[in-house]
Give the backbone structure.
Amino acid sequence: MWGFVSTAALELQLAREALMNPSVKTVELSNKVRLPYVEQGDPAGPKLIFLHPVGDSWRAFEGLLSELPDSIHAFAPTQRGHGDASRPESGYRSKDFAEDLLHFMDALDIEAAFIAGGSSGGLIAQRFAIDHLNRVRGLIFLAAPLRLTDNPMTPQVLESVSGLTDPVDPEFVRGFAGGIVREHVSPEQFEEMMAESMKVPAFVWKATIAGLAEDDFSSGLPTVSAPALVMWGDQDRGLPRSDQERLTELLPNARLIVYRGGGHMLYWQLPGEVAADIVSFIDEHSREHC
């Protein structure tokens, strides 16, 4: 009934708990941008970096991170202008976020990593892979669009953001987030998402969404030879299946996983399933480098 744990076993248990319960750190990049980030897992394991969508922060992946084994060395930065990151006056195109990622990897001595982009974070992952393929072990797209230039929702989003001023109206944030995700996440998750989104100033919303609405990297994707995993839920109201199939076709070494009943926020709604598929993908392609 009463158990005793050796000192060595206790130290091992505490070390594992520390790996699986990340604390927020901050790094200043060579371009003077300061990014909060969380880090967890074995430093000797394969590197995995998560890129959150517009209006979010590293917390977008909190549930997913908790499902990953400590054999994976995972990072989730909050990108410029978002959350508690620094907010330069300009530089909110996908190429700017991609260059921050390069500086982030350099600052943390990450030679190459698996890059996972959630929703619009997938466009940053595309840009980074096209520009810095040698730093990419693999790509993971979590309900990420091929592009937003021809998405039916884009004109409405551009119109809604055009008149934003500070402080940002909570109803704008509630409508922006709620339009495609609310029915697939818990009320608590939705309020957490709201809190993070409210930290983003109006000029960042405007500049980032304007840039995303113009970005189309599809012509460069056939040059990306890294393995890719495209993950999509069949109840995603923002992205049609045809978009995901085309993204898969353009990437030379990609496959598509479809989650029955999954919505746009797959990694919030189904963190265990999504994490298991990410781990399998990383394990498969990490062996190729052994």
